[in-house]
Design goal:
The protein is an all-alpha fold. About 80% of the residues lie in helices and about 0% in strands. α1 runs antiparallel to α2 and α2 packs antiparallel against α3.
Length: about 160
C-alpha cells in the first residue's frame, strides 16, 4: 500500500463504522416507533372501552360507579397522550437524523468544485426524497385495526 492509502485507511474505517452505527440506530428508531404505534392502538381501544363504560351509566347507577367510570376514562386518555407524545418525539428524532444526513451530503456535494450544478442536483435529488418522506412521517396518522363490531343484542 502507498503511504497516501495508509493515511486514508483510518478515515475509511471510521466512515464505515459510522454508517453501520447510523443504520442500526435507524432500525432501532423504526422498531421503537412501531412499538409505540401499537401501544397507541391498544390505548385507543382502552379509551373506547372506558367511553362505553361511561355510556352504560343509567339513572340507577351509583355515584361510585360514575366516579369509577370517569377515573378509568381519565387514566386511559392520559396513557394515550403519553404514547402520542413519545411517538411524536421518535418521529422528530428520525426526521432530524435524516435531515442531518442530507446536510452532510449537501456539504460534500458543495465541496466538490469539479462538479456542475446539474450533477450536484442529480446526486442530491434522491437523497432529498428521503427527507421529504421523513417530513411526511412526522404528521402521519397511526393506522390501527378496527375491532370487530359487536353483534347487536336484540331484546326479547
Amino acid at each position: 500500500m502507498t503511504p497516501a492509502a495508509l493515511r486514508r485507511l483510518p478515515l475509511a474505517t471510521a466512515l464505515c463504522l459510522g454508517l453501520a452505527a447510523a443504520g442500526c440506530q435507524r432500525a432501532d428508531l423504526s422498531q421503537q416507533t412501531k412499538k409505540t404505534e401499537a401501544a397507541i392502538c391498544t390505548e385507543l381501544a382502552t379509551v373506547n372501552q372506558a367511553l362505553e363504560q361511561v355510556a352504560a351509566l343509567t339513572p340507577a347507577s351509583t355515584v361510585g360507579e360514575a366516579r369509577a367510570a370517569q377515573q378509568t376514562l381519565e387514566q386511559s386518555i392520559a396513557a394515550l397522550k403519553t404514547s402520542e407524545n413519545q411517538l411524536q418525539k421518535l418521529r422528530v428524532e428520525a426526521f432530524s437524523k435524516v435531515l442531518d444526513g442530507f446536510r452532510g451530503e449537501v456539504a460534500k456535494a458543495s465541496a466538490n468544485k469539479d462538479q456542475t450544478l446539474e450533477e450536484a442536483a442529480n446526486e442530491l435529488k434522491p437523497k432529498a426524497m428521503a427527507v421529504i418522506a421523513a417530513r411526511k412521517a412526522l404528521s402521519a396518522a397511526v393506522q390501527c385495526e378496527e375491532p370487530a363490531a359487536a353483534a347487536p343484542t336484540s331484546k326479547p
